[in-house]
User: What shape does this take?
Amino acid sequence: MKYYYAGGKRVPLEPDESHVAVEEKAAARAGLGPLLEEAAAQGGRRLPGGVVLLPRSKLDAQSMARLQGRVRSVYRHGDAMVVPLPEIRVEMDDERQRSAVMDAIDTAPHPVEVSEKSASRVLLTPRSGSSEDAIDIANHVFEKARPAASSVRLLQFVPRPGVPKIR
Assistant: This one.
């Protein structure tokens, strides 16, 4: 089961097999903008960060194949729908944490790029571009180094009170 850390506590993620999330810009660059627009018009929802949430049932096998590599998994936590992105932010309070974080990056479960580094923060991206790899890397860094924070970038969609939940 996938999970992430928030406030030092493990938060479980339940896979949502009935939805997929597609990065709009990546789909457009691949010439799949019209396909995405059509699917979005049939029950999709635009989320912040340039992601479109779609019912999996609105995409046939051929469409899914064309979107390969541009699709992100969708998870649930309570009423929230959660879409992880392939970005990890690690916050460090002191040199001891920084050293432990750098050691943890060296032993990460997947190859990772350091995209930004300062005395108190490191931004990482999995070389695979995989959101699932990003979750694994963020958790590994937190569990091995115990920095102030190590989190994958998450887009969360929580329905407003009184609005029906997305199923």
